[in-house]
Structures are given as structure tokens and as C-alpha cells.
Amino acid sequence: MNYYNPYENKQYEDWESITKNLISNHPLSTENIQKEVLNSWEDIFNSSIGVYKIGVDIFPQPQIMGFFLHELIALHLHRQSPREWSRNNTINDKDLVYLSDTKYSIEIKTSSHPNKIFGNRSYAQKTESTKGTKSGYYLAVNFEKFDKSNPKPKILIIRFGWLDHTDWVGQKSASGQQAHIPSRIESKKLLKIYELKKG
User: Concatenated DSSP letters for 20-77?
Assistant: First the structure.
């Protein structure tokens, strides 16, 4: 896949409108994305392992919930349109592959943080190999954690947009394993398509 950065040489104040245009040109509507994310989340709580039910007997850690969400979103979309969407098949594929044109493929990021997403440190490494794999459309999903007072956590925010590989910033400490997106970039390049209503 050829490297492409739609924000290159563009003014910061134009970034949000560029993101909106990228979203409107994507083959998946924001309504469909929202529906499949929320349906996938519900599917997790309708699942059992043997006789034990998730959310009743089993309370997975956020990383496990994120894994389930990744898999189910891709499976739902593949089942809906098997000639258009596929799960990733190789290490260089995005999480959700658009078969007709890979520029519309999507990387999925999930987090139990209220409003941030994270990647591993490799996301912040500015090498030729990261350009294509870490640049493109991103679906970001933030969800609540399980705890005793919250046995049925909810999806907090769903965002959709485009990130470039240069947007990721690694932790400063030598032992740091995470990369993040600075708020000023995140606010313009990942736009909310769903937010849990409070109260």
C-alpha cells in the first residue's frame, strides 16, 4: 500500500474538516460502525464459557474485552458483507480489511481509559515499515471496566478518523512500552460518532 498523508502541508485549523471528508468518503457509514460496535459489545455479555456467563461468573480484564471486541466487530462486518470486509490475515493487514481497496481498511483500538487510546511502542517508531501499517483509518472504542459495583460495563465513546504514523508519541522512559496520541491531534483526527449519555 502506498503511503499517503491527507494532512500533509495542511493548516491545523483545517484538520477537522479534512477528517470529516475522509469519514464521509469511507464505505462504512458512521451509523453502521456505531451499530456493529454496540452489537459486538452486547454479544460479549450474551456469551458463556461452559456453564459460566460473562458478566455474571466471569469478569474479563480490559485487554480480554478489547480482544473480544476486535474479533466480533470484524466478524459482524464480514458476515454482513463477506465480499467487502475481512478480518486481518497477515501481520501487515489492518484489523479490518476492505477487500476492494485496502486504503479503506481500519485499525481498531480499544481502551478502558475514559477517552484515550494507546498503541505499543512500535507505533511511535518512525521507520519506513511503519508508514503503511500505522497510517490510515482508525476506529477507537473506550469502555468502562468491570468492578463489583459495575457488573455490566458500557461503551463510553466511539470515534472514527485517520491517523498518520507520525502522530504516535512513545513514552519517554527507556522501559516504557506504550505510545499515545497527543490531545491536540486526537481531537481533530478522531471524531466522536457515539458517546454514552450521562444520567
Answer: HHHHHTSSS-HHHHHHHHHHHHHHHHT-EETTEEBTTTB---HHHHHHHHHHHHHHHH
d(CA 189, CA 117): 13
**Which pairing describes strands 96-98 and 85-87: parallel, antiparallel, or unpaired?**
antiparallel
Task: Identify the burial level of 51 via C-beta atoms within 10 angstroms of its C-beta, where 0-12 means exposed, 13-18 middle and 19 or more buried.
Answer: exposed
- Grid cell of 118 as nine digits: 494507546
Thinking of the domain 12-195, which architecture would CATH place it in? 3-Layer(aba) Sandwich (3.40)
Domain segments of the chain as ranges: 12-195
The model's pTM is 0.91
Other Cβ atoms closer than 10 A to 135:
22
Lowest mean pLDDT among 92-96, 171-175, 185-189: 171-175
Sorting pLDDT into bands at 50, 70 and 90, what band is 90? confident
